[in-house]
Amino acid sequence: MKKLLALLLVLCVLVSGVAGCASKTTTSGDSKTSTTQTDTKDTQPTETKEEDYSETGSLNVLWFASGGTDGKFECVYLDYQSQVPDMLYDTLLKLDIEDHTKYVPRIAEKWDISNDGLIYTFYIRENCNWTDGKPVTADDFVFSFEAQLRGYGIQNERGSFAYIKGAKEFVEGTADHIEGIKADGKKLTIELHTPYSYFMRTLATFVPYPRHCFPENVDYTKFGEYEYWEFPIHCGPYKLESVHYPDSCVLVRNDDWYGPKPGIKYIHGISFSTGGKDAAEAAMIAGKLDLVHSNEFNDINFAQNVVSKNPDYSYQVFPSAYIRLMCTNLTGSQDGKWNKFMANADFRKAINYAIDKEGIASYFPGQAVALSTLVNPDDPFYNKSIPRFKRDTEKAKELLKSVGYDGSTVRIAYYYNDQISKDIVDYICQNLNDVGIKTESILFTQDLANAIYEMKNWDLLYAGANQMSGLECYGLLATGAIYDKYLGNAELRDELFTKYMNELLITTDTNKIREIGNKLQENGVEYCAQIPLYAMNKVMVFNDAKWDFDEVWLKGTDLAIYRTCDLRLESWKLRKP
Asked: pTM for the complete prediction?
């Protein structure tokens, strides 16, 4: 009798378990579910077990795609705006979240780098498979590099991949394949034509796609339009369980993934494509959206409003390499109205001292930070011997007097056509007027390349720069780029910047990078050809009462939220549903 009762209980458990499994679905429009409840009577007291919300609940994250979520997933190469791709896809390696100079093996279980820094050999894990069961191979990476370079690509990655031997010829169409990338089963070899110290860091963001899911004669220019994107195959720590375009997708822990078991079983991506930013904000306030970080929501006011209305939430500001600056025209203008004082470094320093950078940063309180160099002062490679910026109008006037400034007009151009940018340029004009510099502002609206690099009818240009590290921004001052057209002075710039940038790009030693970085920043302050204004830090808003994770994440830079670092998913837990 006991055996029969036990057998019946097992059968009941099995039936209820099967009924509870979800199948993979792709839907559009409304979806409806119904449940039937049955009354039960307990004749014996039962012991209640505490529910494991990490297994039964879900972390609700923003599913953002700049191209929309109407009927396909977006190619990951287009942007870094959502947490969803980082859950579905994987990379050869990741940066250590505590120390960005160290790497964590991912798809590649190990790698070798030749002594000359030109040849990288990666060994792909034997137990790394796509979610359709097929193995991830080096051929998948060859295919994905080609797709990135010739079709869809993020500029930061493309710039780094230009160091690969044969990449230039492939992009220009004079070669059918990239000479420097070779596949041999699970072994991937990449050869560079010039050493590049940031190459590994770029690989930390680069995801492969399954070659077998695309046609043999793939058109890379239409890479994001293939049927694959309707329900993509991937190889990351989570699997796509279902998708309801354009509103949501459900990810479930990938039990076949080679890495540590993610602590949370379900991730729910929500797009708010029909309601936009206001709908996402309302969802966070209502406790229905747990994690947001993207350019669309990179707004301290948004974060503060959510936290003020729902105390369960917190926000974190991450130091960023994205900066706004004033470029300087040192070579003259087509209309003959160029201000000759721009050629004098002390005059440029006077402009730098005159600008109220802290006042400009206050347009974005708690998010923007005034700059002394092109490197964010909260960046680990900031030169700490250079004081944080303080406006000094008396120093500015002193320098103007020493150069014999004659009151001639300085023309300030800008191309951001939003009200805050206009207000900032007006404020800069006022700052310069305060010390006696006459100004005129000009908005460039058409054919920017011609206006900036050919006509050059400007003296200062309010612009933006975005690199994966602040030190790389000094590439703007090195020779050999389009900026030569308005910076000139190649011999002096080679001595001050180009030679150090060349050293930086082949150096992997952290102390040497810091030494070179300090010199670049010192030279930048003295030469003052790019006048740094402020860094725009990145904001993440999250449900602190619900979501538990390794808090070392909050001590990093914005690389931690853009698919670059190992986020230690095994530490993630849900405290409540």
From this structure: 0.82
